[in-house]
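Hey,

Quick one before I head out. I ran the complex with flavin-adenine dinucleotide overnight. Inputs first:
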Amino acid sequence: MKTCTLFEKRPVLSFEVFPPKSTTPVESIYRTIDELKDLKPDFISVTYGAGGSSNNATIDICEAIKTKYGIEAAAHLPCINLTRQRASEELERLKAAGIENVLALRGDINPDVEPKHEFEHASELVEFIKENSDLNVLGACYPETHPESENMIDEIKHLKMKVDAGCSQLITQLFFDNEDFYQFYEKTRIAGIDVPIEAGIMPVTNTKQIKRMVAITHAKLPKKFVRIMEKYENDPVALRDAGIAYAVSQIVDLIANDVDGIHLYTMNNPYIADKICSAVGTLFSAGE
Ligand code: FAD
């Protein structure tokens, strides 16, 4: 199933998982999905390292999500280190695995890896996928602007190009202040971007993780969020619970404001996903 059709029933709930590191047995991801499946997400997306090496795990995991667990899957595909030949091969692999959805990404620039320069922006990959396959294409977007963007006007202009190239749904970068999302959403509609946008929610559960995420995404931390983190920084259980409660409060507010969908960055942690879904699960079907 093409995940863009899921938005006829709103709001959509999706999860993101990542393939285990090479030092961890690959089976560990299936134990994670075993637990996540009971939370009944509409689809699960699987990340893909931008390093450009032949990464079999993403597509294999997507295939298992679809065939073994009966849940729709979306494979991430960053293009910065792909040649067009490699991109064609990945499309062939997706087709052979029966995957119908791909999240087309540029990928983060690694100063130690010279990009292939065959795709400069995600919109070029979107165009390539639409020309060479029947896949449903998802894209990423940034309510606080992408760290490389000079301003929101450029950000929205480039996002419109990505959607016009064939993206049928978008997922946001994580954010902690819903007002940033609402303002961004409104700007997309003014710009004529009319595809569904899922809000990316990351439950923050330890201080190390927050620092890493903020360094990568440049996400703004609202005062009330910082106060919670400071109060509980030396109490891991209380910090975890406060992080879950914060994510729940974001989701309740987003659903009350008719968000198209929630994309939960699960960090491969079913306990946290379970706590969040137990708190807000009924809201996804309320009012249907
Ligand atoms: P783009 O859409 O190409 O945008 C990147 C920057 O270029 C932006 O500043 C944009 O405004 C600008 N830009 C776009 N088009 C043009 C143009 N024509 N001219 C000039 N400037 C332009 N990374 C991974 O490596 N693997 C993953 O699995 C992964 N999953 C992700 C999932 C989500 C939901 C999100 C939000 C991000 C994910 N990322 C992943 C990170 C992503 O690869 C980085 O944020 C990357 O820096 C940008 O990717 P993009 O697809 O948004 O790029």
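Residues 236-256 form the longest helix (21 residues).

Talk tomorrow,
K.
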